[in-house]
Amino acid sequence: MLKRVVIAIIFLKAGLFISPNVFAQGLAGDTVKLNIKQAEDLFLKNNLQLIIQRYNIDNANAQVITARLFNNPDFNFSNGIHTNDASQGPAYKDQSFGISQLFTTAGKRNKNIQLAKISVEQAKYQFFDLLRTLKFTLHNDFYTIYFQQQSAMVYNQEINSLAKALTVFKEQYKKGNVAEKEVLRIQSQLYTLQAEYNNLQTGIDTVESEFKLLTKSPLNSTIQPVVDYKSGGEKIVAGVAYQTLLDSAYANRYDLKLAKTTIDYNNVNLQLQKATAVPDVSLSLNYDKLGGYGTNFLGAGIGFSLPFFNRNQGGIKQARIAIDQSKAQFQNQQDHVASDVAVNYKNALRLENLYNSFDPAFKSDFTHLIQEVLKNYEKRNISLLEFLDFYDSYKTNTLQLNALQLNRVTSMEQLNYVTGTPFFNQ
């Protein structure tokens, strides 16, 4: 009996506290190690969504060029083909020319230029708001991968140790030295851990896939974040006043700026719709070689519509409605911004206080406790089931601590996102 226990202990001890490098070694070959700054550089350089959005800015600038252009003059030419009166010569000798130019009135051209410039601003705000959103996703994915990989190492350690122990216990069971229930207990625990580890790894793969798309990293690579995590009891969130965060959000949120420029756009559009009610003027110059008033006839003309019926009443009314609508949308957006900041500030404070309530030495103390438990198991002071229960408790607490650290980091990233300002950099 003592012999089988000693054998099992040897295998458990060999597998229980294996180096975390085992996990990294499993990823070796095509592992991409990078810190958050390197990830951001890849993202800004390679992200296709940002590249596509940049083209919208170029398109908007091209619209400004178009708005600045004047209308082209119209030219017409007519040559005679046939006439019944040949007193002035053959019909083909009669030729006439005409040229006309349309002139817009009431400042329509300038107002169209203003609208095009506002559209450029809107395209830029849409670009920077997309950048804010994608950068938030990038940071979340980066830290999610890191902390979930830390949790995966815990599973990796326990699975390795139990797998080795199971092999030894099966051999001892065949020799009649171990009860079947002990083998089944280890086997059941191992299968549970493998299922949990598989689910965790699937989650990591999903997040990694999104991260690779954001940075355009090789799809067959494995991302290994390098994090210098601040694990002390710093009051990072509490060090920034709520009003400071709110003011920053009002000043720097690009979706809010976009809503404001929509009001400006609609105000200028109202002026344009009113100007549209004023008729444009067309000036023309005509020449007729053999005209009815004699040879080489030269005439000039002017043309414009008479605004008796259509004075663009519908367009003006729609523009006024659009102004009222955009003002309501802007106020609604402001309310959402204030709500986002308030909710996320409370959540970040709560998580920071919870995290700071933990003893920084807790993790190392708990690891030391597990080592002591192993020694007691070697001395047969505790049973196998008690040993497994202790280790399961260690795993659960370590996973919870990793989850808490991840939630704390992402809550600060969320505050960066809702304020549009990088207040908190990990």
Explain briefly what this protein structure is.
The chain has helices at 2-16, 21-27, 36-46, 48-68, 108-174, 180-215, 242-252, 254-276, 313-356, 362-378, 384-419; strands at 31-34, 74-79, 95-103, 222-225, 281-291, 294-303. With 426 residues, the chain is α+β, with helices and mostly antiparallel strands.
Tell me about the largest β-sheet: 4 strands, antiparallel
The figure for the number of domains is 1
Using the CA coordinates, give the radius of gyration: 38 Å
What is the global morphology?
elongated
The CATH topology is given as Outer membrane efflux proteins (OEP)
Strand content: 5-15%
According to CATH, what is the class?
Answer: Mainly Alpha
Helix content: 55-70%
Number of helices: 11
CATH superfamily label: Outer membrane efflux proteins (OEP)
**Helix/strand-derived class?**
alpha+beta
Contiguous low-pLDDT stretches (5 residues minimum) are 1-29
Quote the distance from N terminus to C terminus: 53 Å
The CATH architecture would be Up-down Bundle
User: How confident overall, as mean pLDDT?
Assistant: 86
Give me the count of strands.
6
Widest beta sheet: strand line-up: 2-3-5-6
Please provide the ordered H/E string of secondary-structure elements.
Answer: HHEHHEEHHEHHEEHHH
